[in-house]
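Entry:
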Amino acid sequence: MTARAAFHSALDAARDWHAALPAMAAFTDWPDDLRYAARAPVSRPVLPLMERDPGHASPQSARLQAALLAAAPHAEWRLTYTEEEVGRDFLNRFAWFELAGPDGHFVTDQCRITVAYWGRNLFYARHWHEPEELYTVVSGSGIFMVDNQPDLILGPGDTRLHLSNQPHALRTQNDPILVLVIWRGAGLADDPRMVPEDAS
């Protein structure tokens, strides 16, 4: 399968996932200005791990999981954070790519749709960003943490909303997690930023 075909299959599966999840459909409309952009693939150490251990998918999420795994070798995978911020082990077992957005494999200014994977037993410390964000779990599971709210263990088909500039964190335990995330609002092209350890 060519890169273009793989990304179109992933986009089709993501669009159907968006339509099937009420929380996602309510969060934002599916973008109507998508334009495919050929981008050179960038590999990361996490990719073989993700291929071996993508996490358990539900019957509803299996198609999207398969489409994302097929697109993975062609994707421009990113890390965002430095080793000083998160450690080498984290960088070896995490990465993300922009399926659609200002700098995505499909270009749109209406939202940002990203795909991310964390291996087992990883802690993604408190971070924040200006756009509002909706996580949707494709496979695996994780503990989602938001300041002043109960922790939630989420699995395939579950969602978690993060408001603008709201600190939040994620921890995996015995499962990895593969997610499709959508952003809306200002700052779509910006990267998340870690909350300083001494911040309240």
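DSSP finds six helices and twelve strands in the chain.
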